[in-house]
Amino acid sequence: MGFYKDCEGLCFFLSLHFIFFIQVYLVYKVDDKEITSQDNDNIILLFHKLTFYTIMFLTFYSHFQIAKSDPGIIDNINNIDMLEFYYFIYKEIIQLRQEYNLKYEENLNDIYERRYSTDEDEEIEPKSEIKDKMKNLISRKFKMTLTRCNSCYSVRPFNSHHCRVCHSCILEQDHHCPWINNCVGIFNKKYFILFNLYAFISVIYGSSIYYYYTVFKNYKCFKNDLVQYLISIFWGLFAFIYGLFVLIMVIEQRDNVVKEFRKYRKDKEIRRKMMKIKMRIIFGSNYSLKWFLPFFEGGKRYIYFYLRQKKLDFYLEQKEKQQEKENNISNK
Fold first, then answer.
1. Sign of CA dihedral 224, 215, 237, 242
2. Cα-flanking dihedrals φ and ψ of residue 57, to 5°?
3. Which terminus has fewer CB within 10 Å in the chain: N or C?
């Protein structure tokens, strides 16, 4: 997985890390020694700083993980593997869709698929050798609608799109984000959600520390310091815009999950089950502390590698049996 995608994305990526540095620097410069000599106040300030640095580390690590992770690229080598992986993790939702469609005599899945079947016009070298006949066979076997990309010729399942920057189809692509210099897809969506969540918490928490100790507790010195006065105004405006932006991104990610299953509103039980499965897929496990830590993979990526290894083991086993059979024939 190449980290560098384009110059614009790299500039945005580095700019965001510069913002991280400014946040850390502002909190680091907050000093309580001139305000009080009580040890308790200094300990409380130190606790707030350490908590803020922890949140900033999680923000930075989440951002780095999104940028360096494979979002779920579909190419000639793994096209069939990605389809099998998608079916394996979504088979419960596929069954619930069929149950809903039969129960209410609807086929909303096909309608939704057609809406996203022709959204590319980039001409690049085809990246899939799956012919139409095989595509139809896989579609019937997995009982799900598959579309073919007009740009790279990849066969892809529901909600996958072609990215003109990555020059590939991405499984469950959300969008290509210049701030992370990468696409947001099935394998790194968890990191993207965590990054926006921690970024929002960090800017609110860091601003609170800065304004409380620099402005309110030290107001006599603050009002005579023109530099600090200008910094406080600038940072207040920036923190509001930045915090509002990442908060909107968090809400948008939540709305995307709700929107995906909105068409199943006639049956709240089926819809609830689908959303629960979807959240397990995004965060990689049942609800636990792992959901909020970027050290654990999302998108059930481990299953993808498990399925590929299982297929490789089967291939090697068959090859070994064939070799033994040829040796027995030659010995006779």
1. positive
2. -65, -45
3. C
Let me know: does 93 contact 282? Beta carbons within 8 Å: no
86-109 pLDDT, tens digit per residue, is 999 999 998 888 888 888 876 544
What is the pTM for the complete model shown?
A: 0.85
Question: What are the tokens at 240?
Answer: 């509001």
Check residue 290 and report its DSSP letter.
G
Residue with tokens 């909600």: 159
Residues 23 and 204 sit within 8 Å (Cβ to Cβ)? no
- Count Cβ atoms within 10 A of the Cβ of residue 290 and give its class: 0-12 exposed, 13-18 middle, 19 or more buried: middle
Q: Which of 201, 199, 202, 177 is nearest to 189 (CA)?
A: 177
Tell me the per-residue pLDDT of 297-318, one tens digit each, with 9 for 90 and over.
Answer: 999 988 988 888 888 887 788 8
Distances (CA, A) of 182 to 10, 71, 117, 200, 249: 10, 8, 22, 20, 16
Return the CA Rg of the chain: 26
Per-domain residue ranges of the chain: 7-70+188-260, 73-183
Separation CA 6–CA 8 (nearest Å):
6
What pLDDT was estimated at residue 115? Answer: 40
Span 247-281, pLDDT tens digits: 999 898 888 888 888 888 888 899 999 999 999 99
| CA–CA gap between residue 163 and residue 5 (Å, rounded) | 11
Residues in contact with 96: Cβ distance below 8 Å, sequence separation at least 6, in sequence order: 270, 273, 274
Token digits of residue 201: 């918490």
